[in-house]
Backbone:
């Protein structure tokens, strides 16, 4: 198989991939990745039957998208990336359906974040803990996923592609059919909202 | 803050942009000066980086730290069946 040149050095997945990887045979997917995907889904959605559904959707989506596999990541990472999008979609649908268990509401009004003179209206609090430490990360990621579900769909899609899948903004533009400027605005808005949502719903921040 | 300097709103936009593209030198310099003087924007930047790091660590997290909750056997069978019949259609 010819070695494909990596077209964008800015992409995280591209940087990680030293070689072009092969997609494994879908027949082995359930045995090879079933546990990992299920565990991942269950950690985010808490409901075994929903987790199973999401894993199933992921496998089917993966099967349908085999042609798009670019060999930059392992099959497992590729499937997990699909699963993450499914999880956020599910959380979004669920939060639209039921108003209970709502996160503190978000207004997607960037102007409201700053005064006329461009000063912070809601100043960023100090975050007490460092979620990069693994033992704290689960809780943080939980809120993060729920907050992603609260974001406008296109914004959270752009954010997922950039921060979870590690695509470059160039690739995101292609994927979402938007201009570069558009993608930066969407990512900015997504980050503003997410940060605010995390601050409001993650217990460990202090003014 | 003087009028010729970037305000917090502009800095917040550029901090986000700096995560996606390389900014011109003078902008980077102006941001750095602003962040030295403004703890809120400095926090904002740190928090965006925390969010980014957490997202990128997310894959590693579930891997080694819990071997609980494997796929239940009946769910495994159902998934295999669905996948097998879907593969039949895709052939």
Residues:
């Amino acid at each position: 198989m010819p070695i494909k040149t990596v077209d964008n050095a800015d992409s995280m997945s591209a940087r990680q991939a030293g070689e072009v990887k092969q997609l494994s045979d879908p027949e082995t997917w359930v045995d090879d990745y079933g546990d990992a995907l299920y565990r991942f889904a269950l950690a985010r959605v808490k409901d075994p039957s929903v987790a199973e559904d999401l894993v199933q959707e992921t496998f089917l989506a993966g099967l349908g998208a085999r042609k798009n596999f670019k060999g930059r990541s392992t099959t497992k990472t590729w499937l997990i990336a699909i699963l993450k999008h499914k999880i956020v979609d599910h959380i979004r649908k669920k939060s639209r359906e039921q108003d209970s268990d709502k996160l503190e509401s978000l207004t997607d009004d960037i102007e409201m974040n700053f005064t006329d003179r461009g000063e912070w209206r809601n100043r960023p609090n100090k975050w007490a803990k460092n979620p990069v430490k693994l033992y704290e990360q689960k809780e943080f990621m939980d809120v993060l996923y729920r907050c992603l579900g609260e974001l406008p769909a296109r914004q959270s899609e752009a954010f997922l592609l950039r921060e979870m899948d590690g695509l470059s903004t160039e690739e995101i533009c292609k994927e979402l059919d938007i201009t570069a400027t558009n993608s930066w605005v969407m990512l900015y808005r997504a980050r503003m909202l997410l940060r605010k949502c995390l601050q409001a719903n993650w217990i460990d921040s202090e003014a | 803050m003087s009028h010729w300097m970037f305000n917090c709103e502009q800095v917040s936009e550029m901090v986000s942009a700096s995560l996606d593209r390389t900014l011109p030198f003078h902008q980077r310099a102006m941001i750095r000066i602003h962040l030295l003087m403004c703890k809120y924007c400095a926090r904002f930047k740190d928090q965006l980086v925390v969010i980014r790091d957490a997202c990128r660590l997310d894959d590693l997290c579930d891997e080694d730290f819990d071997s609980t909750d494997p796929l239940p056997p009946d769910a495994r069978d159902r998934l295999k069946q669905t996948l097998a019949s879907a593969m039949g259609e895709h052939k």
